């Protein structure tokens, strides 16, 4: 996945080589000078993610290990200008990821391992705080809240871990913080960004057995992770 995105950036840099040289030059040609004066504008993003679990346990025992993998993101961007340096953004997207959980005290690796595949419909509402534009670049900070529907939650399943079925809540609420940079090219604005996401709520649905070796020791299990997005306006 990383190779794919770096390949995209490589070809983008080749295609726009003259533009990028103008961005950081001594006297750059100003691109899209009036772009940020629009009241509303639209875009889309591609990116990748790395999700993890923050696991708190209710008794002293061996830790549940959470292994991250790299997933991908795709979505749309709606941007409303509230002020010269403040924008309200809505970025609905599809996020696919997988986390591998290894539970202690199992001799059988099949019983100990749970592959938690998640497909989120992610709905963030964010405030973007931009600095003054310098030539063809403009750094910014972003933060806000979001909610996500996990299409792979298994929340309605009657089976649980005893049947190799890991269950999570359907809906999760997050807060998000990040930073990025707007790069103004000749025909469009390109914005790479990094954002951290942190769940407010416990997402684990406990097994039917209150003494389950998988879930009985878990006080809370909350998603956390980061996104790297490449936005095109």
From TrEMBL:
It holds the Pfam family OMP_b-brl_2. InterPro entries: Beta-barrel_OMP_2 (IPR025665), OMP/PagP_B-barrel (IPR011250). Residues 38-203 form the Outer membrane protein beta-barrel domain. Residues 1-18 form the signal peptide. Keywords: Signal. This is PorT family protein.
């Amino acid at each position: 996945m990383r190779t794919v995105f770096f390949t995209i950036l490589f070809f983008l840099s080749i295609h726009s080589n003259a533009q990028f040289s103008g961005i950081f030059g001594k006297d750059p040609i100003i691109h899209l000078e009036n772009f940020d004066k629009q009241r509303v504008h639209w875009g889309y993003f591609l990116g990748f993610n790395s999700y993890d679990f923050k696991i708190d346990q209710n008794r002293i025992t061996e830790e549940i290990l959470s292994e991250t993998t790299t997933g991908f993101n795709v979505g749309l961007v709606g941007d409303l200008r509230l002020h010269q340096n403040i924008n309200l953004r809505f970025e609905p997207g599809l996020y696919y990821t997988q986390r591998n959980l290894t539970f202690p005290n199992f001799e059988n690796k099949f019983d100990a391992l749970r592959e938690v595949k998640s497909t989120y419909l992610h709905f963030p509402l964010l405030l973007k705080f931009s600095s003054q534009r310098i030539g063809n670049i403009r750094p910014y900070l972003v933060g806000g809240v979001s909610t996500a529907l996990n299409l792979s939650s298994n929340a309605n399943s009657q089976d649980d871990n005893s049947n190799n079925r890991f269950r999570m809540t359907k809906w999760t609420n997050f807060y998000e913080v990040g930073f990025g940079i707007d790069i103004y090219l000749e025909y469009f604005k390109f914005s790479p960004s990094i954002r951290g996401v942190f769940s407010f709520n416990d997402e684990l649905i406990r097994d039917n057995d209150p003494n389950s070796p998988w879930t009985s020791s878990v006080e809370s299990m909350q998603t956390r992770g980061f996104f790297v997005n490449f936005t095109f306006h």
